[in-house]
Design a protein that fits this description.
By secondary structure, the chain is α/β, with parallel strands linked by helices. It is built from 4 helices and 7 strands; from the N terminus they run βββαβαββαβα.
Length: 138
Amino acid sequence: MAVRCEPPSCTVSTQSVNSKACPLVIVISDLLTPAKLLRDGLAHLRHDRHETIVLRVLDRDEETFPFKNWSRFRGMEGEKPQLFEPAMARKMYLANFEAHREQMQKDCTAMGAELVTFHTDVPLIDSVTEFLHQSMKR
């Protein structure tokens, strides 16, 4: 599945996935995108009978919002920088992040995809090894 994001919209394409030659598809993303985009892409993969694993890659700061001082945040999709007082934004950010995470998990489960989160502070080989070890236990 190819995802191309160019502000203000994103496009999902599964046309590059050959259903006969590629029964396993691994999606690697931070998933900081509208839930419908992921859901629609996963629906295409499910329709084509792909086994799908979604690897979500996040910095721990995205999950915990540990910022204490006034900070200027730059949008990664072309949004203008904004100055925030973290104590004011933390509660709303964390609530929105958790609701989004729950929706992504629900959508992956509904579409038969496995969702696994990797963190950028853990070496990739360690994350992959742990994932494979846990998968073999199931």
